[in-house]
Amino acid sequence: MKALTKVLQEKMSPAVALNSLLEGNKRFTQQLQVNRDLMSQVSDTATGQFPFAAILSCIDSRVPAEIVFDQGIGDLFSVRVAGNVVNEDVLGSLEYACKVAGSKLVLVMGHTKCGAVTAACENVELGNITSLLAKIKPAIALSENNSSSGAISVENVSVKNVGISIETLRKESPILAEMEQQGLIQIVGAIYDVASGIVSVI
């Protein structure tokens, strides 16, 4: 399979981009991955890249975006940070992916059994980890406010955290917000299940 070209990227809509990811995840979970000549794709992309989507996900070793979405070299921009939180560098990376390089979709993907979310729920404080986990605290507060028992579910916090990351992208990046309003891109949230390999849009 050839690497994505500029012509194909430009023709792709945000909806088609999302569907391509979900179809790829379906192939992954059914062990029907596309047989790719990765070195050929290395050659194809040597003079340029035209990824159709940008994924903001966690650094967790169980959640490699290209693998779980069955994509090849040159198909995705992958931004990874513990807890899939948003900062200035993440914003700049996603703005580059969409505004400069032409990606049609931003997918913010959290996952089950997230260590960063668990650590935030447990109030871990350690070096620079402390300031990173502080970005997850609003999701904990939101989860507590929506719980009748007051109990905190790590998985529920992970979902809330994805939602907050998306809100932050729209609020702190006028570029991405305008592109989404114009229908040029779509910003979507999802959760990856580390037990089943299934990605669910939320």
Structure explained in plain terms:
- The chain has a domain at 6-111 and 172-201: Carbonic anhydrase (Beta-carbonic Anhydrase, Chain A, 3-Layer(aba) Sandwich).
- It has helices at 6-11, 14-29, 38-44, 65-68, 88-100, 115-121, 129-134, 137-145, 154-172, 174-181; strands spanning 53-57, 76-80, 105-111, 186-192, 199-201.
- Strands 2-1-3-4-5 form a 5-stranded mixed sheet, sandwiched between helices.
- The chain is globular, with a radius of gyration of 17 Å.
- Helix 4 links the parallel strand 1 (53-57) and strand 2 (76-80).
- It is built from 10 helices and 5 strands; from the N terminus they run αααβαβαβαααααββ.
- It has 202 residues and is an alpha/beta fold.
- The two termini are 30 Å apart.
- The longest helix is centred in the last third of the chain and has 19 residues, at 154-172.
Question: Any descriptors?
Answer:
10 helices; 202 residues; alpha/beta; 13% strand; Beta-carbonic Anhydrase, Chain A
Along the chain, the helix and strand elements come as HHHEHEHEHHHHHEE
Q: What is the mean pLDDT?
A: 95
Return the structural class. Answer: alpha/beta
Helix content: 40-55%
Give the structure's gist in a few sentences.
The chain contains 10 helices and 5 strands.
Secondary structure topology:
Elements: H1 6-11, H2 14-29, H3 38-44, E1 53-57, H4 65-68, E2 76-80, H5 88-100, E3 105-111, H6 115-121, H7 129-134, H8 137-145, H9 154-172, H10 174-181, E4 186-192, E5 199-201
Parallel strand pairs: 1-2, 1-3, 3-4
Antiparallel strand pairs: 4-5
Helix pairs in contact: 8-9
